[in-house]
């Protein structure tokens, strides 16, 4: 027994966005949100934790770099878990008095600008909850690290309930359906070549809460109906309704960002080009076959059904030409080569001319997956003495 716990946890992409807090410390949102959890085989955070008597202070490494531990959110998570362990007497006082070492990394490039804090905090709190043997709702613990992280503790499609209680005890995530419910659902992440630093989600939403009239309207009038409707569309596997609500909610979220003063501009020219291409594609198909959504950055996330993947990847390659050999990442063998087939009729007739080369850095193919998993094969990131392996 090494005493080391190692966990992997997934990224999630919201289809109804969380934007705005009613409590900054407890990280309580103004509105419910809904997301899909993505397959950890393609993108995940991996975290090892241990507690030992010979560690002088709490320490954390993120993607090989040692980071200061005096981060309020990190300390809240650890403090809360230890408090529960003490109340539940799940470990002894001596174990609770030892310091911890945490080593965490993502298997996807952070340069991609993809939301990594959700996977990271979901992974961290799952690992710590196992280390201290606490029995509690993990989503509320993850929420203390980063709001969107609470949705990464379950697989499939997940709803984060805003809750109404001031102590946040009803602000938890629940699973809408598991990862097997809609097996045809696929996700393409289009990573935009962009190096600009964006306003963090936390700062951006603070500013929106303080200044945006549209945010008030969104929270009161748009989101409640959309959440109900999209939950039903997910349960019914009604792609057209799911897709329309997803796109409208992404657009409204970015409208709120523009309504913020000073405005938060996350989408870029290429992001708007992606929107234009996908609407044109749906129009030509005579049905909604693909949905886009954008978080607090320029990258697009597309939801579509497996049968349409070759056509949509071929379209993306035609309209956003690339010089990169390994442009598509994560494609299973069964689909490899298929998107290279050049001339589907519609591609030649597609009414949008190719844009400049290399506007997109790469494309990640993935699907809906499961929640955090403990790794039992001993591939820890800390060695038996609790030291980082790398
Ligand atoms: C646009 O969860 O990163 O991705 O709670 O302050 O850590 P904090 O914010 P964060 O915000 C995510 C915002 C979003 C929408 C979403 O994921 O719902």
UniProtKB/TrEMBL annotation:
Every Diphosphomevalonate decarboxylase-like N-terminal domain range: 9-173
Domain Mvd1 C-terminal span(s) in chain numbering: 187-374
GO CC terms in record: cytosol
Organism superkingdom: Eukaryota
Keyword Transit peptide applies: no
Top enzyme category: lyase
Alphabetical list of Gene3D superfamilies matching this protein: 3.30.230.10, GHMP kinase, C-terminal domain
A Pfam family reported for this protein in Swiss-Prot or TrEMBL: MVD-like_N
BP-aspect Gene Ontology terms: cholesterol biosynthetic process; isopentenyl diphosphate biosynthetic process, mevalonate pathway
GO terms of molecular function: ATP binding; diphosphomevalonate decarboxylase activity
InterPro entries hit by this protein: GHMP_kinase_C_sf (IPR036554), Mev_decarb (IPR005935), Mev_diP_decarb (IPR029765), MVD-like_N (IPR053859), Mvd1_C (IPR041431), Ribosomal_Su5_D2-typ_SF (IPR020568), Ribsml_uS5_D2-typ_fold_subgr (IPR014721)
Its job: Catalyzes the ATP dependent decarboxylation of (R)-5-diphosphomevalonate to form isopentenyl diphosphate (IPP). Functions in the mevalonate (MVA) pathway leading to isopentenyl diphosphate (IPP), a key precursor for the biosynthesis of isoprenoids and sterol synthesis.
Family the UniProt entry places it in: Belongs to the diphosphomevalonate decarboxylase family.
PANTHER family assigned to the protein according to its UniProt record, in alphabetical order: DIPHOSPHOMEVALONATE DECARBOXYLASE (PTHR10977:SF3)
Protein name: Diphosphomevalonate decarboxylase
Species name: Pararge aegeria aegeria
């Amino acid at each position: 027994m090494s005493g080391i716990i190692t966990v992997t946890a997934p990224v999630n992409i919201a289809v109804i966005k969380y934007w705005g807090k009613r409590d900054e410390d407890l990280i309580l949102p103004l509105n419910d949100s809904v997301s899909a959890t993505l397959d950890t085989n393609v993108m995940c955070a991996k975290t090892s934790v241990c507690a030992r008597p010979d560690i002088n202070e709490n320490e954390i490494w993120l993607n090989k770099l040692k980071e200061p531990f005096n981060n309020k959110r990190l300390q809240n998570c650890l403090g809360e878990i230890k408090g529960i362990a003490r109340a539940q007497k799940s470990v002894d006082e001596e174990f609770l008095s030892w310091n911890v070492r945490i080593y965490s990394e993502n298997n996807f490039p952070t340069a991609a600008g993809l939301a990594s804090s959700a996977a990271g905090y979901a992974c961290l709190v799952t690992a710590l909850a196992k280390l201290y043997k606490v029995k509690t709702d993990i989503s509320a613990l993850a929420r203390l690290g980063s709001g969107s992280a609470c949705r990464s503790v379950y697989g499939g499609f997940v709803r984060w309930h805003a809750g109404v209680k001031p102590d946040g005890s009803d602000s938890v995530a629940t699973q809408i359906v598991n990862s097997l419910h809609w097996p045809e659902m696929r996700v393409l992440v289009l990573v935009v070549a962009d190096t600009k630093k964006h306003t963090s989600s936390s700062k951006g939403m603070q500013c929106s809460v303080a200044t945006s009239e549209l945010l008030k309207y969104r929270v009161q009038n748009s989101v409640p109906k959309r959440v109900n409707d999209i939950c039903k569309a997910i349960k019914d596997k009604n792609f057209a309704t799911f897709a329309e609500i997803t796109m409208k909610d992404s657009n409204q979220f970015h409208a709120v960002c523009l309504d913020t003063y000073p405005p938060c501009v996350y989408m870029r020219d290429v992001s708007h080009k992606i929107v234009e291409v996908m609407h044109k594609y749906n129009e030509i198909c005579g049905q909604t076959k693909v949905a886009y959504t954008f978080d607090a950055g320029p990258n697009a996330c597309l939801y579509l059904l497996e049968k349409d993947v070759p056509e949509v990847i071929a379209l993306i390659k035609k309209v956003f030409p690339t010089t990169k050999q390994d442009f598509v990442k994560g494609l299973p063998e069964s689909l490899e080569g298929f998107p290279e087939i050049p001339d589907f009729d519609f591609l030649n007739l597609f009414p949008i001319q190719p844009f400049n080369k290399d506007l997109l850095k790469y494309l990640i193919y993935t699907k809906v997956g499961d929640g955090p998993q403990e790794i039992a094969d001993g591939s820890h990131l800390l060695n038996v003495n609790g030291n980082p392996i790398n």
